[in-house]
Design a protein that fits this description.
Bound molecules: SN-glycerol-3-phosphate, calcium ion
Shape: globular
CATH class: Alpha Beta
Number of helices: 10
Strand order of the largest sheet: 1-2-4-5-6-7-8-9
Largest sheet: 8 strands, parallel, barrel
Helix content: 25-40%
Distance between the termini: 27 Å
CATH superfamily: Phosphatidylinositol (PI) phosphodiesterase
Structural class: alpha/beta
Radius of gyration: 18 Å
Number of strands: 9
CATH topology: TIM Barrel
Strand content: 15-25%
């Protein structure tokens, strides 16, 4: 785990653009990531999954129905699981219209395209990659290396799957952070034992908003773990958590924390 946390090492609460600027643009599209960069997010979050042929794509859900027109394009392919579709098939889908008609024609981007866009547009915010399914670690690392992102430490990793973070550790350079995400149920059960386990292989913990308390933050920091909280959108929650000293906030509205004194 990381060296013991020190207040001076974290000048402000990091703003993590959750699925891009997903309050303003369809999540996990290039538009959403571009907007997050323009809003000066400190990190851009990308949930990563593999298509049937292994191509890495940016998508949150395991199925396509919520954020694409898959039900219309492939009416006989229920339940529209991402890993039942080749990348060429995924590419036919519209990933923008569900959010607003002005985003019609947005496609599901590959992780490669996300990185290429960041480089082409000189975006400096690092990627914050969530491995949504264990087993994709080597492919993710290979791609990041190809673009120099691992060498330049322009990335941080998170997962709900401990085995995914454990698989990443030997593949990445020293200093790149691994964050263990914790679900609602787990966060509301035991705390100290959980933190003890996580501190063995991770550098931080991602907690749901409903579970965070000052005691949680103190206990995590006491074990040398940084604390990131998901998903924080309301100004009163942003202010409260920044004042509490959390290290980062996932938000769908990356422009909001900058307007809150406690977060600056
Ligand atoms: O990674 C933090 C947060 O994104 C976890 O929840 O469901 O939005 O991926 P989810
Ligand atoms: Ca996520």
């Amino acid at each position: 785990a990381a060296a013991a946390w020190q207040p001076s090492s974290q000048p402000k609460t990091a703003v993590i653009a959750h699925r891009g600027a997903s309050g303003y643009a369809p999540e996990h599209t290039l538009s959403s990531y571009r907007l997050a960069a323009r809003m000066q997010a400190d990190y851009i979050e990308v949930d990563v999954r593999a298509a049937k042929d292994g191509k890495l794509v940016a998508l949150h859900d395991a199925t396509l129905a919520r954020t694409t027109n898959a039900e219309t394009v492939y009416p006989r392919r229920a339940p529209w699981r991402v890993n039942d579709f080749s990348f060429a098939e995924l590419r036919r889908l519209d990933a923008g219209s569900w959010f607003h008609p002005r985003f019609a024609g947005e496609r599901i981007p590959t992780l490669d395209e996300v990185i290429q866009m960041l480089k082409a547009e000189r975006v400096e915010a690092p990627l914050y990659i969530e491995t949504k399914q264990p087993g994709i670690e080597e492919a993710v690392v290979h791609l990041l290396k190809k673009h120099g992102f691992l060498q330049q430490r322009r990335v941080m990793f998170q997962s709900f799957h401990p085995e995914s973070l454990q698989a990443l550790r030997p593949l990445i350079p020293h200093g790149i952070r691994l964050i263990q995400l914790v679900g609602e149920k787990e966060a509301h059960s035991g705390r100290d034992e959980l933190l003890q386990q996580i501190a063995v292989y991770a550098d931080g913990i991602g907690l749901p908003l409903s579970a965070v308390t000052e005691e949680w933050v103190r206990a995590a920091h006491g074990r040398g773990l940084i604390v990131h909280v998901y998903t924080v959108n309301e100004p009163h929650d942003l202010a409260r958590l920044c004042a509490m000293g959390v290290d980062g906030l996932f938000t769908d509205y990356p422009d909001r924390p900058g307007r809150i004194a406690a977060c600056r």
